[in-house]
Amino acid sequence: MAAVTADTMTLPRVRAARLDEVERPVLAVSTAPEGYEGEGFPVRRTMAGISYQRLDPFIMMDHMGEVDYQAGEPKGTPWHPHRGFETVTYLIEGQFVHQDSHGGGGVITEGGTQWMTAGSGLLHIETPPEELVEAGGLFHGFQLWVNLPAKDKFTAPAYQGLQPDDVKLLAGADGDSLIRVIAGDVDGHVGPGSTHTPITVLHASINPDGRLSLPWQPSYNALVYVMAGSGTVGAEQRPIHAGQLAVLGAGQRITLAADRKQDSRTKAMEAIVLGGQPIGEPMVQYGPFVMNTREQLVETIEDYQQGRLGVVPPNAIMPHVPRGRA
Length: 326
Prior knowledge:
By secondary structure, this protein is mainly β. It has three helices and 26 strands. The chain has one domain: Jelly Rolls, CATH 2.60.120.10. Strand 13 and strand 14 form a beta hairpin.
């Protein structure tokens, strides 16, 4: 598994748990159903079936791949609209090309993150580059949707291209875990993502038989998704494995432990850990639009149909058609 790697012995370490800190218990563990997105790339709907009250401010998170494409197989999404939230695309393997109608865009590489604030609305496309389509190869990543509070629903669209070197790297207290902080604060160490809604998002790799205890903002909720490997989560050491999401209760620490023996496809237990300050407002969704009321959704659909969310630019990127198939 590529992404960003480092020698944990040389990194700053998160502090060990204090005796007075409360470990977060596990409220539920769910298994992500599989489906397809865009032009047909496979995803796991990691938050499917979990109530928004438990997820707030997160709307959904798709685990894209892991898939080893043959030549001509890689697929992305066509041009499509968004309004009312932010998308966060984190790549572990492969590449994606992004462009939006508000001038944002670039190439997302292994270990990189694209942070797009849709806000008042835009059109965008995410698609594999020509060389990946023609040659095939590994593709693996995540896309997270983060809600915007009512006061920011119509903020101007914005784009952040976070490079692999931008990610804040930490080690667990005992050095057995590598922590990549994409956004938010972990023990005073701040990730590069600039967010409207207070959140923390990180990718942790826990060595076999290792244990990671993370200090966590008490007012945030807490979610743990295991993308590879197996182990336990929470104060009660609840078993969890690849493709499962744990919803945690109140407390000041999140604890993960990796099984001594991992499966043959991974050297460590790999997990996405995320949480945020709940917005606590009504949320209604219709496909790529996330608003506060049904009336706002109707208005948004009308705006899209009338071209008020933006237009595809003249220099638009389009999904690459493999040579010989045009």
